[in-house]
Design goal:
By secondary structure, the chain is mainly alpha-helical. It contains 5 helices and 2 strands. Strands 1-2 form a two-stranded antiparallel sheet.
């Protein structure tokens, strides 16, 4: 007679379909941007589906727009960080003011550049309408994208 209780206590081995373990910086960067693009894609499509001020012609266009958005948002953050580094050891009220003002100018002004780039790349296939010729809708989408990315990052960190 065999004892079935010892068999039930053995761990069940499930073969992995895709491993989340990364071993290199390149893989970690890839996963970070891949996830961010997917988040952007979801947010863009939710806005396009549920808000009349955002319209995107197709899923393919929204995917390409998400990639372009991610690239341009990361470039914006890189420029903002470079401004911070430039003023990092400098003292004085004027340097502090310039650091804050220039960072704000880059972060806010970049939205107009990004909106122009999307309009240039996709024309009427991506539409942001409403107040201020669509700028308010676009800023709302970008804020939702950044908030969603931050929520996912914080959730991911709690899993460690």
């Amino acid at each position: 007679m065999t004892d079935n209780t010892t068999q039930a206590l053995e761990p069940l081995e499930i073969p992995e379909v895709a491993s989340a373990n990364t071993s290199s910086n390149k893989q970690q960067v890839f996963l970070r941007y891949f996830t961010a693009i997917l988040i952007d894609l979801v947010v863009l499509n939710l806005f396009a589906e549920y808000w009349e001020h955002v319209a995107i012609d197709s899923f393919t266009i929204s995917l390409l727009a998400a990639v372009l958005l991610q690239i341009l948002l990361k470039l914006t953050l890189m420029v903002e960080h470079q401004i911070g580094l430039f003023f990092k050891g400098k003292s004085g009220a004027m340097n502090k003011f310039l650091r804050v003002f220039l960072a704000w100018l880059v972060l806010f002004g970049s939205k107009f550049v990004i909106l122009y780039a999307i309009n240039f790349a996709f024309g009427d296939a991506v539409y942001f309408g409403g107040p201020f010729h669509g700028v308010a809708a676009f800023i709302a989408v970008v804020v939702a994208i950044l908030a969603s990315e931050e929520i996912v990052v914080r959730f991911y960190r709690t899993l460690a």
